[in-house]
Amino acid sequence: MIEHKLANILLRPAEHLAGHDELYAFAAKPLAFDEAGALVVSEPTDFMTFLNACSAAKWRTYCGIGEVVLHLALSGDACEVIVKGMPQGAKAEAQNTVELSRITVEPNEGEVAAVSATVDTAGMDLVAFELLPCGRTLLHGGHWATQVDEGRVRPIELALSTTTFKKEHYIVPNIELMRSSMASEEDPIFGHFHMFVVDNGRTLDADALSDGLVTVIGNENVGGAGGFARGMLAALDSSEGFTHVVLMDDDVHVFPESIKRTYNLLALASDAYKDAFVNGAMLSVEQPCRLFEDVSHVLRSGVYRKVKPDLYVDRLDQVIENERLNVEVDNAYGAWWFSCIPVANIREKGLPLPVFVRCDDVEYGLRSKPTYMTMNGICVWHESFEGRPRASVDCYQYVRNFLVMTACDGFVNTELFMTRVWRNVMLRRRDLEYGAAELLLQGVEDYLRGPEWLMEADGSALMRKNGQLNDKFVPVSELDPELVAAARLDEVKPTQHRRLGLAGKLVKSIPGDKHLLPDALLRKTPGHMQRLTDVDYDIDTRAARTIVVLDATGEKAAVREMDRERNHRIIARERSLKKRWQLEHERVAQAYRDAFPTMTGEAYWRSHLGMK
User: What are the tens digits of pLDDT across the range 53-73?
Assistant: First the structure.
């Protein structure tokens, strides 16, 4: 038997998590540290948190581990270490935790005491510890571990592939953080990890940033799909014998402990989970305790649905709910802000679809049909999507790529999806968002061009061209003050995210077009709305010939004006496209299915990426 580490106890909050101590420990006062970096514990401090509790039920389920060992290094005054658990089925409240063991620690003066406790996790969702100091105790560190037969530890070689495009302010610190964090020989991942940085912008100093742990690869701007394909190929071609690849966005705050825990999880996975994917949760940079998503799934209508609601993991009840909610659902996918994929799956299922951005991760999940593993503390912090509405991505890329995905995977009901597309065109026209309506139609038209066009399309040039049709947001302070006052923007409550109620949804669903109203019946005062990705809030647009649209923050706005002629052209284009769709879509879908092995194959991608 050997002892294998599961997870480190994390003490000092990362810079981007300053002020959010509850992710690390619950205490009455902010966490404090001595000059050597030890946590100063002078009051009861509870470590049953998102980042420090041991995910007992998950380790049992995924790895068959029923007994864990807690190791702590303490000095200073005497204290009690209470090991406790949250029973399965118990209401997720602090008073329902149960004490599993209690240890009195009296360190010798000037010495660091090593404290260990073996914990039977049977019947527990989480196990954790609490420190009750008698004076001033110092916690120097600790970790969770388990005893296993050496022969059942799987040989894992882990590659991290991140794709970047001119985001040095994120990627360079992430490189340095990973380099320093993987240097500890005490972690099982030591010597079994490499980071590939695919630089689609060719703006990084590859020679300066590359070493034995990191390789920077210059790449054409082929979008996220092409960048991740290049990273996958780097792992396939490496002599290191990588078993898994973690795909990760560039605009994230990377969390090295998440990579370490992923490695440990893979190394100890039972036969039932040896081929599973690991998906890390996305938490919001703007709201660091808000867990946005880890695994989602696709409905037959084409709607994406998160498995979990938004969870605020600075609260114990939601930390527990996050662990209890089952992510093993049908038609699931994990977004590529953090998705660990077995190399064997890449060899069997192929590389991403060449769609530049959007739907590549969704399609790959539907294609691979994996089992997903998730766990508290395996995560990244990513900028929220609500504040970045871009019709060039949310409309054009989504519709075109989703249709390609649907043609290849055959799961989604295409007619239901197209009903949603046509309705969305109507809604965008109603809100005077002509560019978005045009991009929806362009997405359908370009899908109908077929797979040969898609494989040769210049995705970067398309993004630049389509971006010209996005709303142009400027600071509200730069708008005409009379327009701002007339639009009653002070009535919109940014960040409250007040969704339309049932009555509002019914009104919005009624067919109607204010472009048919004579000028005399149109409002002279501008309307307003707030836009968060593809969800509208605080709408007041009926019969308005001018609409002021706020972004998610309420600090920027775009102004839309009625254009009857442009609206007429969109209607005519839609009618023509509907006829063409009926005539061509089945033939085109078959063409995509026939071309699918080529589009996702190594030969195509190596040629497309200019690899020798």
Answer: 999 999 999 999 999 999 999
Q: Is residue 95 packed enough to be buried (19+ CB in 10 Å), middle (13-18) or exposed (0-12)?
A: exposed
Strands (E) across 515-579 are located at 527-532, 535-540, 546-550, 556-561
**Of 541, 457, 452, nearest in space to 492 by CA:** 541
Q: Compute the distance between CA of residue 121 and CA of residue 127 in angstroms, rounded to an integer.
A: 7
Nearest CA-CA partner of 105 in 113, 97, 96: 113
Q: Are strands 244-249 and 339-342 parallel, antiparallel or unpaired?
A: antiparallel
What is the number of residues in the chain?
612
Task: Quick: pLDDT tens for 501-522.
Answer: 666 666 656 657 899 999 999 9
Residue 235's nearest CA partner among 361, 345, 337, 365 is: 345
Give the integer Cα–Cα distance in Å for 401 and 397.
Answer: 6
What is the predicted pLDDT for the residue at 554?
Answer: 85
pTM of structure: 0.94
Residue 311 backbone dihedrals phi, psi, to 5 degrees: -125, 140
Residue type, 471: D
Angle separating helix axes 398-409 and 360-368, nearest 10 degrees: 10
Instruction: State the first-to-last Cα distance of the chain, in angstroms, to the nearest integer.
Output: 46
Q: For 149, which DSSP code?
A: -
Classify residue 35 by burial, with Cβ atoms within 10 Å: 0-12, 13-18, 19+. Answer: exposed
From the list 62, 85, 48, the residue with the least C-alpha distance to 6 is 62
Secondary structure in 3-state letters for 231-251: HHHHHHHCCCCCCEEEEEECC
Within 168-205, residue ranges assigned H as helices are: 168-181
Best CA proximity match to 521, nearest among 529, 509, 531, 513: 513
Q: How many CA atoms are closer than 13 Å to the CA of 310, on its beta-carbon side?
A: 10
Burial readout 305-339 (b: 16 or more C-beta within 10 A, e: otherwise): eebbeebbbbbbebbbbbbeeebeeebbbbbbbbb
- 572 pLDDT band, cuts 50/70/90, is very high
Residue appearing with tokens 């049932």:
502
Does 41 score more than 60 pLDDT? Answer: yes
Residue 156: band (very low, low, confident or very high) from pLDDT cuts 50, 70, 90: very high
Sign of the four-CA dihedral 404, 405, 408, 410 = negative
Q: How far apart are CA 136 and CA 224, in angstroms?
A: 50
The pLDDT-based confidence of 540 (bands split at 50, 70, 90) is confident
Mean pLDDT of 433-453: 98
Can you tell me which residue has the tokens 């294998």?
4
- Across the range 226-231, mean pLDDT stands at 98
DSSP three-state, residue 145: strand
- Residues 202-222, mean pLDDT to the nearest whole number: 96
Question: CA 254, CA 246: separation in Å to the nearest integer?
Answer: 12
Each residue of 243-263: pLDDT tens digit? 999 999 998 999 999 999 999
